[in-house]
Amino acid sequence: MIDSASLAPHRFIPTGESPAHVVVSPNGRTTYTSNGADGTVSAIDVATMRTVATIPVGARAHGLRPSPDGRWVYVANMGGSSVSVIDTASRKVAEVEVGKGPGQVAFSPDGRFIYASLSGAAAVAKVEVSTRRLVGTTPVGQSRSRPMSAPTTGTCWSPSRESTTDQGRRSR
């Protein structure tokens, strides 16, 4: 944690091995950190600044996002083929198979779907949140990193090193 005005380190909070991403719950009470080397997520109580849980998820836990209502945290397991779904109340975990190498996740504006970037398949997977069912995947081209967002326009953004024309040539 750093002081935002001075950029000075304010406090160090122990987490799992190789923390990768940090997100804050919608109510601002809990911070979640994905820990890639040990496949866990650390839940940190913002009021006490203490890790209150270490939750085992999948291999190489990477990008994560809380659901808009804060009931769930979705975690991309880059070293496997699943997205872990953490129940924030019970801290129980379910898995959703999405495809090879999920690196990031993002929610649709209405919270009905998540999108998972698949670095091992150069694709994006779409999962229905209510059923935790894979709806489908679409190719997006190669990229080393896949930050994603699904802004209020309803579009899903994923960077690629290839143009649409390149993708069309590749699929013929």
Describe the structure.
Strand 1 and strand 2 (30-35) form a beta hairpin. The chain has a four-stranded antiparallel sheet with strand order 1-2-3-4, with no helix packed on it. It is mostly beta strands and 172 residues long. The radius of gyration is 17 Å and the shape is globular. 5% of the residues lie in helices and 42% in strands. The protein starts with 18 loop residues before the first strand and ends with a helix. The protein has one helix and twelve strands. Residues 163-172 have low confidence and may be disordered.
State the gist of this model.
The chain has 172 residues and is mostly beta strands. It has one helix spanning 164-171, and strands at 19-24, 30-35, 40-45, 50-56, 61-66, 72-77, 82-87, 93-97, 102-107, 113-118, 123-128, 133-139. The protein has a 4-stranded antiparallel beta sheet, with no helix packed on it. Strands 5-6-7-8 form a 4-stranded antiparallel beta sheet, with no helix packed on it. Strands 9-10-11-12 form a 4-stranded antiparallel beta sheet, with no helix packed on it.
